[in-house]
Design a protein that fits this description.
By secondary structure, the protein is α+β, with helices and mostly antiparallel strands. It has a single domain, classed as Gnk2 domain, C-X8-C-X2-C motif (Killer Toxin P4, Chain A, 2-Layer Sandwich), CATH 3.30.430. Helices cover about 30% and strands about 40% of the residues. The chain has a 5-stranded antiparallel beta sheet with strand order 5-8-9-7-6, covered by helices on one side. Strands 1, 2, 3 and 4 form a 4-stranded antiparallel beta sheet that branches. The protein is globular and about 40 Å long.
Length: about 130
């Protein structure tokens, strides 16, 4: 018998057969909040290069070092970019990476604002440039 239940923003799907239950969770399924700065970056080339490099470095830390929290800063020209990411410590490395990938994709919708934050059930990501 297939059952579906939503618990605090997580979607749990399980089926019962002979008393055995399996569960699959989607930790990044629910967007809690997103905020984008209304101020645009002045040097777009450096801005996009810094953001891409920052997110790449964070992705590597999550993938290779199984980190659930990290900060990265990059400087290019006059542009200094800070980024911070954290996922819930009970998430597996793959679930944490999945949440990070979802967050980096969605946060790019903030276009070229000089700061943004995005919060999901399982993780949050923030960047700011100066």
């Amino acid at each position: 018998m297939l059952q579906l239940k939503v618990v605090v923003g997580l979607i749990l799907i399980w089926w019962s057969s002979n008393g055995v239950e399996d569960a699959v969770a989607a930790p990044d399924a629910h967007l809690v909040n997103i905020g984008c700065s209304s101020f645009n970056a002045s040097d777009l080339h450096s801005f996009f290069a810094n953001i891409n490099e920052t997110f790449s470095d964070m992705r590597e830390e999550i993938s290779n070092q199984s980190k659930h929290f990290g900060t990265v800063q990059k400087a290019r020209g006059e542009v200094l970019t800070y980024a911070m990411f954290q996922c819930r410590n009970y998430l597996s490395k793959n679930d944490c990476l999945s949440c990070f990938n979802t967050a980096t994709t969605q946060i790019r919708n903030c276009s070229n604002g000089n700061g943004a934050r995005i919060i999901y059930d399982g993780c949050f990501l923030r960047y700011n440039i100066s």
